[in-house]
Specification:
By secondary structure, the protein is mainly alpha-helical. About 45% of the residues lie in helices and about 10% in strands. The chain has three domains: about 1-40, no CATH class; about 45-90, no CATH class; about 95-140, no CATH class. The structure holds zinc ion.
């Protein structure tokens, strides 16, 4: 899971959790947040992040995550390396996001009857065909 919290938000969560007392569920979560913060600000994590940026950054396509709060999302592996958080661009076209209504395959409202075309989902494609048919009838 990834969530973008600024330092004040992270502190607010820790303070709120401390109000839960010494229950292990709260103290374990606080420890996890403190450890994440310490690791993410470590010179080793920053170094892996910098190397990833130098070697793999491709603006507009593959962008290495570089937080303004000096944290680096890095997962050190036991296999002589680390995973560094990066963002891969995926266009609406690749993801079949409907240019008309914004719906997408897999949503509950996405039409299942027929095919979409020209960037339209099945429902919008059907509506467009109906409008085209209406237009043709008026013109003939
Ligand atoms: Zn649509």
């Amino acid at each position: 899971m990834w969530i973008n919290l600024d330092p004040q938000e992270l502190e607010l969560i820790k303070v709120t959790l401390k109000q839960g007392g010494n229950h292990p569920a709260f103290t374990n979560l606080i420890d996890k947040l403190v450890e994440w913060e310490k690791d993410s600000r470590s010179p080793l994590h920053k170094h892996f992040n910098e190397i990833a940026f130098e070697n793999y950054e491709d603006e507009g396509n593959l962008e290495i995550d570089r937080q303004g709060d000096e944290t680096a999302m890095v997962s050190i592996s036991e296999d002589d390396g680390a995973y560094v958080l990066a963002w891969q661009w995926v266009s609406n076209d690749e993801a079949d996001i409907c240019t008309e209504c914004g719906d997408h395959p897999g949503s509950e409202t996405y039409g299942t009857v027929g095919d979409g075309y020209d960037g339209l989902c099945p429902s919008c494609a059907d509506k467009a065909e109906e409008e085209d048919d209406d237009g043709e009838e008026e013109n003939t």
